[in-house]
Each structure stands twice: as C-alpha cells, then as structure tokens.
Amino acid sequence: MGFFRGDIYSYHLSKMTPLHIYLPHDDNHRFLVDKPSRTLILLHGLGGNHTYWSRFTAVERYAQKNNLTVIMPEADMSMYADMSCGHDYASYLSIELKEILGKMFHVSTERERYFIAGLSMGGYGALKLAMKFPDQFGKCASFSGALMIGSREHLKELSEWKDPGRPKVYDEDYELMKELRQGCVGAFGEDLKYRDSEDLFALTRKAGDRKICLPEILMTCGTNDFVFDVNREYCRLLDELKMSYEFHEWKGTHEWGFWDESIRDYIGFFDIDEDSQDSSNKAIRKEVGYGGN
C-alpha cells in the first residue's frame, strides 16, 4: 500500500496536525484509480496517538486485501469533543477532515463509502460522532468502546476522585483514572459538568426519537474487559430503540491482541469489493453472534 505520513493544517484546530494514511494499490503496485475504494477513519484510544494502529496491528495488510483506504488522525486526549480547554476535534474529524481528504488525497468521501471506527476512547468517539453527524458516515464500528465517557455517573466518579499521588509500583487502575480525569477535564471543563451532547446514551436516544437514518453499527468487546458491561448496556438501549446493530463478544481484555483480531475479522463489515482478494473476512464468528435488530 501507499503510506503517507505528514502534517496538514486544520482550520478547526488552528494548527498543523499529523495524519497517517494507507492507500491501496493492485498487485502491480499501481494505485487503484479506476476502482472505487472505501475510506475508513480509524481513531486511537486515550493513551495512544495516530501511530498506534499502524504500530500494533496489521491493519495495512487487512486494508490492502479489501481495497480500503485507512485514515489515522491525531486526536490527543480530546474525548473526540469540541473541547472546553483545547481544540475542536469533533468538528475537525466529522466535517473538515472529510473535505481535506476529498480535495487533497482524492479518496472516496460519499457517505455510503465513508466510515468511522475506533478502539476504547476511539470507540466511544466513533459512535458519538456517528450519532452527532449521521449524514457524514455510512458505517461505524467500536472495538472495546469506553462508552461510559461523558455519562453522568462517570463524570461524577471522576469529579469525586482524589489523586493520591503516583504509587512507587505501577498501578494500572491509578494510571487509568488519572488519564480519564485529565482527558475529561480538558474535554468537558474543570467542573466536569454533564452535557447531554457528549453522553453517547443521550445522543442515541435523541437520534432514536428523531427517526433519522443512522450509520450501520458494529461493536466488539472482550468478555474480560472492564468496559464489557457498559457495552452490553448500550446494546440493550439499541434493542429498546429498535436500532439495528451487530455486537460480537469473545474472551479477551483491553489490549492490542484483541483489537488486531477485531479489525482482522470484521474488516468485511466495511463493504469489501466482491472481487476482493480476501474472502475469509466475510465470515462472522459463529460463537459470538449476539446482537439485535
């Protein structure tokens, strides 16, 4: 695949921002200018950055087999919001980036060929942006999404958390709480005031009430992941609202092995071409066929 690493200027961010892009080509290493590709915006998690998907998964290989352009933008610890104390990442990723990609890189930006996905914070971000801007994305996927971000309960928990100081021995729970609080303060303000515009559950209910055409939804989550319960809770909400979705669960935790498996096995969700070189990814895991219609 062609691999672009560089910086672009964002009006909404008021700065240069990094971007990684995989562009598919055929077996003769020519870009597929005569075949319509599809474009996937792939979002990183809270402790990561735009390089992590390319560093810790084989997404390049999976995308090449499926004629899929993959865009990996930087979003810092923004919670994929127009931040109270920071930059307008939601507007950049949902509106401006699409225009930049179409004009600068000439990739597919039609809704039916333009998708968004992410892991952890990025899973929350992908679903949230899909609910906020449903006319922008044809499909949306969340891998181990931290879907509690922005909820009343989670903001209350973070506001009540008192930093005891970093332990001498590495403590994963401490690091997670510190990162979450730091990110949420930047995104939602020092007072961590609740806003229904950042609560995925509230946004989804509002979208259900409006009866609008939503992107197709796919989610995966490991049964041993700390975000598993909130993912199942979100599935129940989608069932209640009679929204179509796929949810796949299997044994796993919050780590890159699970996310590589997710993007490998479900990249076919993003409408691979009928003449794609890869047919194995069209199969759905039979043992994880939980979902609603």
TrEMBL record:
It comes from the Bacteria. InterPro entries: AB_hydrolase_fold, Esterase-like, Mycobacterial_A85_antigen. PANTHER family: DIACYLGLYCEROL ACYLTRANSFERASE_MYCOLYLTRANSFERASE AG85A (PTHR48098:SF1), ENTEROCHELIN ESTERASE-RELATED (PTHR48098). GO terms for molecular function: acyltransferase activity, transferring groups other than amino-acyl groups. This is Putative esterase. Coiled coil: none annotated.
